[in-house]
Structure formats: C-alpha cells, structure tokens
Amino acid sequence: MSGSQIHITCLLLVLLFICMGAVNQPGVVVLWIGKFALIISLLTLLISAVTPWIFSFRESREKHLEFSVSKEEKDIQLKLVRKEQEERVTQKANYVMENVVKPREESKFKKKEERFYKMTGQSWKLTEGFRLGIAEDEDSIETSNVDSTSVENPNKEALRKRKLPEHVTRCIPKPEQPWPKKVSYEIIIPDILEATAEVIALPEEPDEVEGVVTVALRCPSGRVFRRRFYKTCSSHVLLDWMTKVGYHYDLYALYTSSPRYHIEMDNDLSLDAIGIVKDTLLNVEQNYPS
User: Fold this and answer.
1) β partners of residue 227
2) What is the Cα–Cα distance from 214 to 281, expressed in whole angstroms?
3) What are the C-alpha distances in Å from 46 to residues 4, 10, 54, 58, 150?
4) What angle do CA 224, 225, 228 make, to 5 degrees?
5) N or C: which end of the chain has fewer CB within 10 A?
6) Angle at 48 between CA 43 and CA 16, to 5 degrees
7) What are the record keywords, sorted (predicted)?
C-alpha cells in the first residue's frame, strides 16, 4: 500500500472509534477529539522542524565526502571508466568487422572476380586444377610405390618428369638437297647490266613559287615523304619517285586519299592533266592481281 492509502485508513479508523465513543459517552468523545487535535499539531510541528535539519545534514555529509575525494582519484576513476567504455566499443567494432564487414567484402570481391573472368573468357581459373595425361598418372603411381625412406628432391623429380623419350630427342637427319642446276650466265649477265644501267633521275626540287605543287607519299610503313614538283612535269615522275623510296611501280600503285581512286600515269600527261593542281596526299598501296 502507498503512503496516501495508509493515511486514509488511519483516519477512517480514528473516525470509527470517535463514532463508537459518541454513542456511549459524548463528553469523553469531545475530550479525546481535543487530545487528538493537540497530538496532531505537535507531530506536525516536530516534523516541520526536524525534516529540514535531516536534509541539511545529509547534504553536508555528501559535500564532505565529495571534498574528501582528491582530484587525482577522480581523474583516475574517469580514466578507468573511459578505458572500459573504449574496450567495449573496440570489442564490438572488432566483432562487427570480423563477422559482418569482412565476409560481405569477400563475397563482393568473389562476385567481381567471377564476373571479370567470365567476361574475359577465363572461366577456367574459377575451377580447381587437376593433372592431365596418362604418363603423369603413371609417374605418380610409380612414385607412390617407392619406399618412404628414399626422399627425392623436388627439382630432381621435376627433371625426371620433364625427360623426353629417345624417339623425340633423336636428331632427324636432313634430307640431301639436290645440287643447283647450271644456269647460263649468258642470259643473266645482260639482265643485270640493264638493271644496273637504269638509274632513276628525278628533276631538281623547285622553290615554293607559282606553278609548283607539294606532293606527299604515305607509304605502307607509315612514313610520309614530301617533295615539290612543277605542274608541267610528267606524271611518270611520281612513279620514279615512288620506286626511288623503295616501292617499285610493278608492285605498288598510287591512290588519292579522299575520294579514293587510282591515278593512271602516262609520259604524255602532266601533273596538271591528271588532276594534281594543288598540294596533294597520295597513298602507296600494293597492287593485287585481279
């Protein structure tokens, strides 16, 4: 029961006694009522005077206890409390890291790795490796039957497995090559003399004046050669120039870059006549047999 309920119960009991006394002796009842009122007033005065003193005594005692504890001890207690709190937080963080964060990151990394290998066509890296070949299995059986006391060096074991059979390492004799046929030098010497006698002579390169165009040759190797010619020069000079830089006109031809078309060369036509009236880029391309 709470305090208010106890007070109400006491008042009801007092009123019950007063009513019972009022029925038998009315004068005695008035006397008891006066005594009861006097006792209540005295108790109220006593409580109102003693209660503040008790509270003040308790507060002063607490203050005394606080002053009795030195500042160093307070700092030590605070450090201990903080250390305990930090240890709890660290333990919790480590638990989360080991059981939540790391497994999640590992699973994400594994998924990315699998996706990368599948996209690059290296799915075999995701499977477990196994040995191939019957010979290797036979070697493994032979090595397992060897006495356990004889320990073989891993390098020697690898050398023994890499040893090829004799029919593979045996040198194959080279077939006898037939002697070259005799060639008539009477036919070759005139051709060589004619080839050496043909010397490509290009016209002198003019200055940048009116009536002069700059022609650039883009070779298959990627190099670009530039040279100036008069518009009145023969178009065959471009073939001579192409041959001189290393691309013979029997195997290569000249094409314009854009629009692309083959340039027909003729001694009777000048550069102006075949359409080269300004600085032009020509591509050297190989002639494929039709």
Assistant:
1) 215
2) 9
3) 20, 20, 12, 18, 105
4) 140
5) C
6) 35
7) Membrane, Signal, Transmembrane, Transmembrane helix
